[in-house]
Specification:
about 270 residues, alpha+beta, Immunoglobulin-like, 2 domains, five-stranded mixed β-sheet, binds copper (II) ion
């Protein structure tokens, strides 16, 4: 047992390089609201840590200080109104304190009014389709070919040699920096979920329903996500890539797309 534990610890230490860029916590992200979401998440996390320290501290202290071998005698009372009131009121107050900033943030997250751009994202088994409303631009976004090839059984390709393995697509969702993008989410078959951690967005795409959300990316760059609802056999193979461009670059991209660059390729089955 001890030998097994030691081996485990050694293995963990040896693999620490591989774990270096493996983050457990949620990212701060690239929108104002993702930063606020992260902040609330951290505040509540530390509240939980403090509560755990107090509760487990009191429990462990009591177990040791009042143990039978030290001659502790059980109390004879069976009910305490004061204790009941205290341990009801304190949690209620804590929950109320947590609820106020959370509710404020949730209201902001739901406010999809006055968008600069509206995109409809439709989930399919197992890819995404994006339609830029009023822009005559629409295309599918599917798993990148190198990932698709490497994931096949017996492909002989080492996944660790594939860049962004299972997190890359042929046609990313392209959006302009600093614009309020409203995303309308639905699905063509089963329930999917559109999740991009850097945008702090995770929303279900449900057949027959239109869910909406919004974001305003403050930084340019490429940001990755995945379908977050178990949607069938290839659920793990429908990633999401968001590419944030500077507004002028985005306009140029959009004009080019109106000529059907990606859209035509997608409908004729000739995806990049
Ligand atoms: Cu899915």
């Amino acid at each position: 047992m001890i030998r097994k534990l030691c081996t485990g610890v050694l293995l963990l230490a040896a693999s620490s390089n591989a774990l270096a860029d493996w983050a457990i916590n949620m990212p701060k992200g690239i929108t104002e609201l993702s930063a606020e979401t992260h902040q609330i998440h951290m505040i509540i996390f530390w509240w939980c840590v403090a509560i755990a320290v107090v509760v487990f501290g009191a429990m462990i202290y009591s177990l040791f200080a009042h143990r039978k071998s030290k001659g502790a005698v059980p109390a004879t009372f069976s009910h305490s109104m004061t204790a009941e009131v205290i341990w009801t009121v304190i949690p209620v107050v804590i929950l109320l304190i947590m609820a106020v900033p959370s509710a404020e943030l949730m209201i902001k997250l739901e406010d999809t009014r006055d968008p600069d751009l509206t995109i409809v994202a439709t989930g399919y088994q197992w890819k995404w389709h994006y339609t830029y409303q009023g822009e005559d631009v629409a295309y599918y976004s599917t798993l990148a070919r190198n990932s698709a090839a490497a994931r096949r059984r017996g492909s002989g390709i080492d996944p660790s040699t594939v860049d962004n393995y299972l997190l890359d697509v042929d046609n990313p969702l392209v959006i302009p920096q600093g614009a309020k993008v409203r995303l309308l989410l639905t699905s063509n078959d089963v329930v999917h979920a559109w999740w991009v951690p850097d945008l702090a967005i995770k929303k279900d795409a449900i057949p027959g329903y239109m869910n909406e959300t919004w974001f305003k990316a403050e930084q340019t760059g490429t940001f990755r996500g995945q379908c977050a609802e178990l949607c069938g056999m290839d659920h793990g193979y429908m990633p999401i890539v968001v590419e944030v461009l500077e507004p002028a670059e985005f306009q140029a991209w959009l004009e080019n797309e109106k000529g059907g660059a990606t859209s035509l390729a997608a409908t004729s089955g000739e995806q990049k």
